[in-house]
Amino acid sequence: MTRLYSLTEAGRKAWDTQNNRVPLDFRRVLGLIKPETDPRDLRVRLGWSEAAVEEVLKDLERGGLVKSIGASTSPDAPDLDFTDSLKVADIQAALRARNQK
Questions:
Q1: Of 3, 8, 60, 82, whose CB neighbour count within 10 A is largest?
Q2: What phi and psi values does residue 67 have, to the nearest 5 degrees?
Q3: Can you tell me whether residue 37 is helix, strand or coil?
Q4: pLDDT in tens, the chain (101 residues)
Q5: Over the Cα atoms of the chain, what is R_g?
Q6: Cβ atoms of residues 65 and 30 within 8 Å
Q7: Cβ atoms of residues 65 and 10 within 8 Å
Q8: Residue burial 70-79, b: 16+ Cβ < 10 Å; e: rest
Q9: HEC profile of 46-97
C-alpha cells in the first residue's frame, strides 16, 4: 500500500511564513504537497531518490507538518497518473462523438 500526503495546518503555516526553523529542503517539499500527493510525483519534481523523499516525508510527518493516508493498490483502485488505461482509440472516439454534437 502506498501513502498519499497532505499538509497539516502547521505545515501550511510553515510554508506560508517560510519559517526558517524548518530546513529549506523541507520547505521545498511542503511547497509541492497538495491534497493527496503521491511521493512519486515529488520524486519527479525534485529529482531526488525514492529513499531521500521517503526520509523527508517521514521527518515531516513526525514533526506534524504533513499527514499521510493509505492508498489502495488493488486493481480496482483508480490509477492516479491515468497512464495505465490510456488508449488513443478511446480518446479519438470521444473527440469524434463530441464533434458530432
A1: 60
A2: -130, 155
A3: strand
A4: 588 999 999 999 999 999 889 999 999 999 999 989 999 999 999 999 999 999 999 999 999 999 998 865 545 555 555 556 667 787 888 888 888 87
A5: 18
A6: yes
A7: yes
A8: eeeeeeeeee
A9: HCCCHHHHHHHHHHHHHCCCEEEEEECCCCCCCCCCCCCCCCHHHHHHHHHH
- H or E segment to which residue 4 belongs: strand 2-7
Instruction: At 13, list the grid cell.
Output: 503555516
Specify the residue for cell string 517521514: 58
Q: How many CA atoms lie within 13 A of 21 on its CB side?
A: 7
The CA-atom distances, in angstroms, between 12 and each of 6, 45, 56, 67, 90 are: 10, 19, 16, 12, 40
**How high is the pLDDT of residue 2?**
80
Q: Nearest Cα to 2, choosing from 82, 85, 80?
A: 80
pTM: 0.67
